[in-house]
Amino acid sequence: MADEWGPLAALAGEWEGQGGLDTAFSHSRGEVLDTPYLEKASFKPFGPVDNGRQSLYGLDYRTAMWRDDEELPFHTEVGYWLWDAATGEVMRAFVVPRGITVLAGGTAAADASQFTLSATPGHATYSIGENRYLADHASTTSYEVRITIDGADAWSYHETTMLRMDELAEPLAHTDHNTLHRVG
Fold it and tell me: Do the domain assignments include residue 30?
């Protein structure tokens, strides 16, 4: 499988991480808080997907995150991670049910154990879309995630979403990071 999926091959499977930390503005408290979270993620391989001469292999993914003992997740995502072996391009296309879509990308070697993906609004290839309310009151100005493969049964990410918010005079670096361990 590694040949077709490149650096994404290591992510295929079921994962859990109990050491997540979300640094974000809390509307209920009116301040930036560090919040621990539990995360569950699923990555299912598919491919090839052919676009003319382009051939992509990917992972269909879903992830959800819970604070403390909450019954419902505070954050969910659905999307795809994609690999284009011909260009060394890694992409992550996802939707957050707050009215946000992201297509982030970067390049990596097929056997890379670390890679970075990014997106900015209006970029010709790697862009961010958001609903009108967010654009007016809490707009995303950039997104970046660094993935590190920590062997066969663990991987981690460090994610920074820069936000321009009505409540804050300066842009906010909303960060999330976690290490996930294979559970299936």
Answer: no
